[in-house]
Amino acid sequence: MKRTYVPLWLLAGALARAHQATTFSDDPTGTESGRLLLWVTAFAVVAAVVVLGALLYGRQRAKKTGEGMDAVWIAVPVILVFVIGLLGLKSLSQLLATGARPAFGVQVTAHRYWWDFAYNGTPVRMSNELVLPAGVPVELRFTSSDAFHALSVPETGLKASAIPGQNTRALVRFKRPGVYLGFCTEQCGLGAKQHRMRVLVVEPDTFDRFLSEAADFRPPPPATAQQQRGAELFASLCASCHTVAGHEAPDGSGPDLTLLGNRTTLGAASLPNTPENLRTWIRAAPDLKPDVRMPAFAELSDEDVDALTAYLEAQRLPSFDFTALPQP
């Protein structure tokens, strides 16, 4: 009779992937549930080996003596369930201990196809890039302005739904500074593939300084005639949809452009934030991102596009450079 052996290297590979995807999560819930999943998976592999071995041994023994292996079928499941139960209780106690009292909260509002982050108790708002401190628990509350969305940050195990008229809650804690990529995992429209965001995690003292300076930020006076022209173009073409600190957009249908110069990407993480890419985005956003609500400004002269770019790039806190963070 031909025998079929379980490819243990496949089981080991799957176990390693589960370990990488969940156990090293920076989210407290993901960390503990990932650790428990690792134990359960390991016990499942051990149980499969033991039961298959006992089955083969029992068949051989039954042929010779007529006696089976009934005790094995009872003992193995009872022991495994007991051990997994103890591990589950340990994980529950860890979750209860780590899941309390976030340091602060952020209201996350999903839009087609961008993300808005409002830091509770402050005037600070960011769009598409969320700045958080390392090692600090933070409560995120999710809602949506239009359709069903869901934010997933795979490296941390975070996944939360954003539903119109409702608030869902997630507690997150990022262990180390760096850049973490996030995606919308709902099919929220034609632009869903580019409905992205970034979490920029910095040291706690750097975050405190950032939040303080961002709360006090006001657009700097235009330093050149080019920036002055850009400010005039922004007021006439952009200000009805986009907010810059101190000048609230009446429509508010577009991302907040306060501190745009500090962002690492444009168009909800569609492009690196460079002057050249910003010029391209202004001229032809619909060609770069399907179903985007921003119109193309192809009729603008090169001088006007350069002026608008210079004005927007000046909206920044000079002492912060998030491009220096460890990249994913």
Automatic annotation (TrEMBL):
| UniProt-listed Gene3D superfamilies | Cupredoxins - blue copper proteins
Entry keyword annotation includes Transmembrane: yes
Q: Check the record and name the InterPro entries matching this protein.
A: CcO_II (IPR045187), CcO_II-like_C (IPR002429), Cupredoxin (IPR008972), Cyt_c-like_dom (IPR009056), Cyt_c-like_dom_sf (IPR036909)
For whether the record's keyword set contains Zinc-finger, the answer is no
Where the record annotates domain Cytochrome c, the positions are 225-316
Q: Name one GO molecular function term.
A: copper ion binding
Supply the PROSITE patterns for this chain. COX2_CUA (PS50857), CYTC (PS51007)
Location of the Cytochrome oxidase subunit II copper A binding domain: 101-213
One GO BP on record is: ATP synthesis coupled electron transport
Domain of life of the source:
Bacteria
A single GO cellular-component term from the record reads: membrane
Q: Which positions, given as ranges, span the membrane?
A: 36-58, 70-89
Report the locations given in the UniProt record: Membrane
> Which stretch is the leader sequence?
1-21
Name the family the entry cites. Belongs to the cytochrome c oxidase subunit 2 family.
Q: What is this protein called?
A: C-type cytochrome
Traced from the root, the source organism's taxonomic lineage reads: Bacteria, Thermotogati, Deinococcota, Deinococci, Thermales
